[in-house]
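Input structure tokens:
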């Protein structure tokens, strides 16, 4: 993982996501005096907002996915690999899970762009580091085997959180390692440029540069 710079909230977000989402929450607790809207009324599922089950929130956040894709260059915030337009699957990850923070379910600042695999692995667990808070050097990459490892000389608490993130997301499983290796091989074979690598696999590019492994070009 590398640090992700938070993107500004799109101008259309309030209209497309926040307001419809808050309206849905009001319906789910049976709030009175709401203006009528088109569509079937939602069933009351809880007495308070805090009691709404996570799976009952309408997925209005999917309306934000195109803006997330554009804002973050189609890069998964967790595995740091480009989400392909056809074969890849992008998704909206709630950094604070829906089961823990109803008031952030429809908030741009709580969204992270994630491939569907990483989103599923993170799920509702809260032991994964926030990409917005990761500092340089917390995660490093072994260039033999392409395994993600904690950086050197980290504070014990930070190192533990880095290891927990690696384990929870399975960042060193076969598929994750293989995609890093394929990008590295393509780069070393001169099939792709360093600029292209930065766009598609920025964590790998940063580590190649930091470890002095940049290939000379003719």
């Amino acid at each position: 993982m590398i640090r992700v710079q938070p993107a500004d909230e799109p101008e259309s977000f309030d209209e497309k996501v926040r307001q419809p989402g808050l309206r849905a929450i009001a319906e789910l607790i049976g709030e009175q005096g709401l203006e009528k809207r088109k569509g079937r009324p939602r069933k009351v599922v809880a007495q308070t907002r805090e009691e709404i089950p996570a799976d009952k929130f309408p997925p209005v956040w999917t309306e934000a996915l195109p803006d997330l894709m554009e804002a973050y260059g189609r890069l998964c915030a967790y595995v740091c690999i480009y989400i392909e337009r056809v074969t890849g699957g992008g998704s909206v990850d709630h950094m604070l899970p829906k089961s823990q923070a109803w008031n952030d379910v429809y908030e741009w600042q709580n969204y992270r762009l994630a491939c569907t695999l990483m989103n599923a692995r993170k799920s509702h667990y809260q032991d994964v580091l926030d990409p917005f808070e990761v500092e340089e050097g917390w995660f490093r990459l072994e260039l033999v085997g392409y395994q993600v490892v904690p950086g050197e000389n980290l504070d014990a608490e930070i190192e533990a959180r880095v290891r927990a993130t690696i384990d929870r997301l399975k960042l060193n499983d076969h598929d994750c390692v293989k995609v890093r290796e394929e990008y590295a091989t393509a780069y070393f074979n001169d099939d792709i440029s360093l600029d292209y690598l930065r766009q598609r696999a920025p964590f790998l590019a940063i580590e190649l540069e930091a470890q002095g492994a940049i290939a000379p070009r003719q």
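Residues 6 and 132 are 6 Å apart (CA to CA). The chain is about 35% helix and 5% strand.
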